[in-house]
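Sequence design from tokenized structure. All designs in this work follow the same two-part layout: the structure record, then the generated sequence. An example of the structure record is given first.
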């Protein structure tokens, strides 16, 4: 059964296995394109919640959104701190996964890249024939 509307993410912490699955879903390039683009985020989080449930984890889209927010905040603080000391990166267990997703590019410049006329080959995330 699904958790009732009263249940919050704090009373139901994410297991390591759950975060691992979540990050692998989040790493999907299409999802990154959509998070950057104009698709309403709520729709994406609903999709993530649905995907999580196929792995046996019941999470609401709201919980997924909060989790991304937390992970990104943690990632940024580790990255900022790590650039000074270098020690913290290995210390945070999700750094490698988050860095693979968010480390390559600025976290919020997806919108402009879709309009780049110099690269007509990449017309957008939603026409790759799936």
């Amino acid at each position: 059964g699904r958790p009732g509307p009263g249940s919050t993410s704090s009373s139901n912490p994410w297991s390591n296995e759950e975060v691992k699955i979540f990050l692998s879903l989040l790493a999907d390039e299409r999802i990154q394109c959509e998070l950057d683009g104009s698709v309403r985020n709520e729709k994406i989080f609903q999709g993530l919640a649905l995907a999580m449930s196929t792995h046996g984890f019941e999470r609401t889209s709201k919980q997924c959104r909060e989790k991304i927010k937390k992970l990104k905040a943690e990632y940024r603080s580790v990255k900022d701190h790590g650039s000074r000391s270098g020690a913290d990166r290995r210390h945070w267990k999700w750094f490698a996964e988050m860095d693979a997703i968010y480390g390559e590019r600025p976290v919020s410049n997806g919108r402009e890249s879709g309009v780049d006329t110099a690269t007509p080959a990449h017309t957008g995330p939603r026409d790759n024939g799936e």
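The longest helix spans residues 61-85. We note this feature because it recurs in several other targets discussed in the main text.
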